[in-house]
Design a protein that fits this description.
- The structure holds two protein chains of two kinds.
- Chain A is mainly alpha-helical.
- Chain A has 16 helices and no strands.
- The longest helix of chain A has 21 residues.
- Chain A is globular, with a radius of gyration of 18 Å.
- By secondary structure, chain B is of the alpha/beta class.
- Chain B contains twelve helices and twelve strands.
- In chain B, the strands form three sheets. Chain B has a five-stranded mixed sheet with strand order 2-1-3-11-4. In chain B, strands 5, 8, 9, 10 and 12 form a five-stranded mixed sheet that branches. In chain B, strands 6-7 form a two-stranded parallel sheet.
- The N and C termini of chain B lie far apart (53 Å).
- The chains are: A mainly alpha, B alpha/beta.
- Chains A and B meet through helix 1, helix 8, helix 9, helix 11 and helix 12 of A and helix 2, helix 8 and helix 10 of B.
Chain lengths: 300, 359
C-alpha cells in the first residue's frame, strides 16, 4: 500500500468480500497446488481483524494471481479472482489525484479480467458489445445465467470503480448505461448474491447517476433496504455505503452521523468470514465521521 | 462489501428550478456532486475566499480549480487561496448568488441564470445560431471582455474568467435537418429559457415543459421527441440512449463566469490582486480547453454508440437563423440589450468577412 493521508478508501471493505468468493473458484478448478494455498490465505484473511495486515499483503497476493494467470491464461475462475482482487485493492487507494490515476488503471485491469471471466474468447466479444448501443448490450447480457452472477457482479463493481476514478472523462461516462445494464442483469439473476450485493451496487449507482433527483434517491433507498434485509445486520459495510451515498445525497446529516456511529458501536458479528470486512467498515465509518463538516457544513 | 468508491461520480443534483436562461446544458451542469472538494493546502491561507460551484466533485472543473488553488496559494506565499464547495452544497444558482451578495461566500462559478440576472448583456451570447464555432465565440469574448467585466464591476462583481458548457445541439427521435422537420414534433421546453422559448414559439411547435430529471423518462415514453443539450451532458445524463439523431448544427452557446465579490477582492492587497487575476485567468482558459475536448469526445461517443448525425444544408441553416433573428426582435430590450446584440453581431460578421483575424 502506498502511504497516504487517507489510507482507507471508502470501499476497503471490498477486499473482504473479494477474498470470500475468490477462494471458491480456485478450489473447484484446482489449477495448481499454489492455488489451494492461496485459498487458505484468502480464507484466513477474511477472519483477520487487522485490516492493515491484509492491506499490506494484497499486492503480493495479486502478484501470485498474475503468476497463476501466466500459467493458466484461459482459466475463467482465476480471471474472476483477479477481477475481485484488483478492484478491491484499487478501492483502498487514497483520494489524491495521483493515487486515483493509479486506481483507474487497476480498476480497468480488474474489469478486463471480469470480461475475460465472462467470455469464451479474450474478452473482446463482451467489450465490443458494451461499447455499442445499450439495447444490443442488454440482449448480449440476457444470455448469461445464474452461474455467471459472481463474474457479472464483480465486473460491474470494477467497472463502476473505473468510471468513478475517471473524473468525468467522456469515454468512461459513456459506459454508464452499459454498467446499469450489467447491474440490472445481476439483480435479475440473483438479488441475494453476496448478502444482497447487486442491490447495493444498484443503490450506489442510483445515488450517483446524473442528474440525481429525489425520485432516484427514493429508488436507491429501496435497494438499500432490500440489501439490509438480505444481509441482516451483519454486513457493516452496507451501512457505511448507505451513509456515504444516500444520507449525503439527501443532505441528511443526522442520518449520516447516526448510521456511521451505529457501525462503530455495532457488536462483534456472528459471522467469522465478515471479521475483516467489518473491521474495515468501522475504520471507514470513523474516517467519514471525521469529515462530517466537510460534507454538510457549507455556509448557509 | 462491494463498492463504495466505485462510484465517485457521486450525487447529482439538477435543480433547474429558478429558471435558467442559459438553455439546456446548464441544467445538467447542476449535475452532481456535492461535497466541498479538498484543497491541497496545508493550513488555510491568510485570505481565504469561499468559492461555490454547482459542478460536481470529481469533475473536470473541480479538478482544475484544485490545481488553480494550489498555484494561487503557492505564488502568493500562502496569502490568498480558495475554500471550495462543489455540487449543490450551497443550493442552486439563485441560492449561491444570494449567499454571494450576503458575503456568506466570496466567489462562484456560474453557468446559468445568475449571470444574466447580474448582467443581461450576456444574453446576447445565448441567441440561437449566433455562433458557428468556438473561434467566433473566442473572437467576440476577446473584444467584449473589458466591457462585460466593467459592467459586472459596476454591479459589485469581479470576473476572473469565462468558463463554458459549450454548444447545445438538437437530439431527436426523427431526423431534424430543417424547420419543417420540427412540425408535429413535441419539443422539450426548458423552464425559464426566454431565448429558446421565443424561437420555439415562432416555429409554432408544441412543447413539453418537463424538468431535467424527467427528460430521460420523457424520451423513453415518447412524451417528448426533440431535446437539446451539450454532447457531454447528453452523455452524462444518458439522453443519447433514447434518441436516434443528433443535428450537427450548434444551436446555442452556453457560457459561464468565475466571479468574486468586489468588496472581498478589494480587500486583497493590490499586487496580489494581479496575481489572482493572472492565475485564475490561466486556469479558466485550461478549463475551457478541457471542456471543448470533453464535448468533442462526447460527440464521438454518442455517434459511436448508435446515434446518427444529421447535417442540415446551408439553406436549411439559414432558415433556422432567419427565424431565430425574427424571434429575438420580439424580445423586451431590457431582457436582450439591443446595443450589445448589435455589437456581437458586428464582431461575428467582421470575423466572417476576414477569417484570418485571430481572436
Amino acid at each position: 500500500m502506498t502511504g497516504s493521508p487517507r489510507p482507507y478508501g471508502p470501499v476497503m471493505a471490498l477486499l473482504a468480500l473479494i477474498l470470500i468468493s475468490g477462494c471458491v473458484p480456485l478450489k473447484s478448478t484446482r489449477v495448481a497446488a499454489v492455488a489451494l494455498t492461496m485459498e487458505d490465505v484468502a480464507k484466513g484473511a477474511l477472519k483477520q481483524s487487522d485490516p492493515a495486515l491484509v492491506r499490506e499483503g494484497s499486492p503480493a497476493y495479486l502478484m501470485l494471481l498474475d503468476g497463476l494467470l501466466e500459467a493458466y491464461p484461459d482459466n475463467q475462475r482465476l480471471h474472476l479472482a483477479a477481477c475481485q482482487t484488483y478492484a478491491s485493492y484499487a478501492a483502498t487507494l487514497p483520494d489524491d489525484a495521483e493515487s486515483q490515476a493509479r486506481a483507474r488503471l487497476l480498476y480497468l485491469k480488474a474489469r478486463d479480467h471480469g470480461f475475460r471471466a465472462l467470455s469464451d474468447d479474450d474478452g473482446s466479444s463482451i467489450r465490443n458489445a458494451a461499447a455499442g448501443d445499450v439495447e444490443s448490450f442488454k440482449v448480449f447480457l440476457s444470455h448469461y445465467g445464474q452461474e455467471d452472477v459472481p463474474a457479472l457482479f464483480w465486473t460491474a463493481a470494477a467497472w463502476g470503480g473505473w468510471i468513478g476514478a475517471s473524473t468525468g472523462k467522456p469515454e468512461a461516462v459513456a459506459d454508464l448505461p452499459a454498467l446499469e445494464a450489467a447491474i440490472t442483469r445481476s439483480l435479475e439473476l440473483d438479488e441475494a448474491f453476496h448478502y444482497g450485493g447487486p442491490h447495493l451496487l444498484m443503490a450506489v449507482y442510483l445515488c450517483s447517476k446524473p442528474p440525481v433527483s429525489e425520485r432516484q434517491l427514493a429508488q436507491a433507498q429501496t435497494h438499500f433496504q432490500r440489501a439490509f434485509e438480505l444481509g441482516g445486520d451483519q454486513v457493516l459495510a452496507a451501512r457505511v455505503m448507505y451513509a456515504e451515498n444516500y444520507a449525503r445525497g439527501m443532505k441528511d446529516r443526522r442520518l449520516f452521523e447516526s448510521t456511521l456511529q451505529g457501525v462503530i458501536d455495532a457488536p462483534e458479528g456472528q459471522v467469522p468470514d465478515l471479521t475483516l470486512s467489518n473491521a474495515m467498515a468501522r475504520e471507514e465509518a470513523r474516517s467519514l465521521l471525521e469529515r462530517t463538516e466537510e460534507f454538510f457544513d457549507g455556509p448557509s | 462489501m462491494g463498492l463504495p468508491k466505485v462510484f465517485s461520480l457521486r450525487r447529482s443534483d439538477t435543480r433547474a428550478r429558478g429558471g435558467s436562461v442559459w438553455v439546456a446544458g446548464c441544467c445538467v451542469a447542476a449535475i452532481l456532486l456535492i461535497v466541498p472538494s479538498a484543497g491541497l493546502c496545508a493550513g488555510p491561507p491568510e485570505i481565504e475566499l469561499k468559492l461555490a460551484t454547482l459542478a460536481p466533485e470529481n469533475s473536470s472543473l473541480t479538478q482544475i480549480f484544485d490545481e488553480m488553488n494550489a498555484e494561487l496559494i503557492r505564488t502568493t506565499n500562502g496569502k490568498v487561496g480558495f475554500k471550495m464547495y462543489a455540487g449543490s452544497v450551497m443550493g442552486d444558482e439563485e441560492d449561491v448568488l444570494r449567499k454571494l451578495r450576503a458575503n456568506v461566500i466570496q466567489g462562484a462559478a456560474f453557468m446559468s441564470t445568475a449571470l444574466t440576472d447580474i448582467n443581461p448583456d450576456l444574453r446576447t451570447f445565448l441567441i440561437p445560431f449566433m455562433f458557428r464555432d468556438n473561434r467566433e465565440v473566442d473572437y467576440v469574448l476577446e473584444h467584449l471582455d473589458k466591457q462585460l467585466k466593467q459592467k459586472f464591476e459596476e454591479r459589485g462583481f469581479v470576473v476572473l474568467g469565462w468558463p463554458e458548457l459549450g454548444f447545445v445541439y438538437f437530439m431527436s427521435s426523427t431526423p431534424i435537418a430543417a424547420l419543417e422537420d420540427l412540425k408535429g414534433k413535441r419539443v422539450w421546453a426548458k423552464a425559464n429559457a426566454p431565448m429558446s422559448q421565443a424561437l420555439i414559439n415562432r416555429i409554432g411547435v408544441s412543447t413539453v415543459a418537463i424538468s431535467v430529471p424527467d427528460v430521460l423518462m420523457g424520451l423513453q415514453t415518447r412524451l417528448v421527441d426533440v431535446v437539446y443539450n451539450s454532447p457531454y451532458y447528453a452523455l452524462a445524463t444518458q439522453w443519447n440512449t433514447q434518441v436516434k439523431y443528433i443535428t450537427d448544427l450548434p444551436l446555442t452557446y452556453i457560457g459561464g463566469a468565475l466571479v468574486l465579490d468586489k468588496k472581498a477582492f478589494d480587500r486583497i492587497p493590490q499586487p496580489l490582486q494581479a496575481k489572482v487575476r493572472e492565475v485564475c485567468g490561466k486556469h479558466i482558459r485550461r478549463l475551457v480547453e478541457r471542456t471543448r475536448k470533453d464535448n468533442a469526445e462526447a460527440m464521438e461517443q454518442i455517434l459511436k454508440r448508435g446515434v446518427q448525425r444529421v447535417t442540415p444544408s446551408p439553406d436549411q441553416v439559414q432558415a433556422f437563423k432567419d427565424l431565430s433573428d425574427a424571434a429575438m426582435n420580439d424580445l423586451d430590450p431590457k431582457l436582450l440589450p439591443p446595443d450589445t446584440t448589435k455589437a456581437v453581431r458586428g464582431l461575428v460578421a467582421e470575423l466572417r468577412a476576414n477569417p484570418k483575424k485571430s481572436p
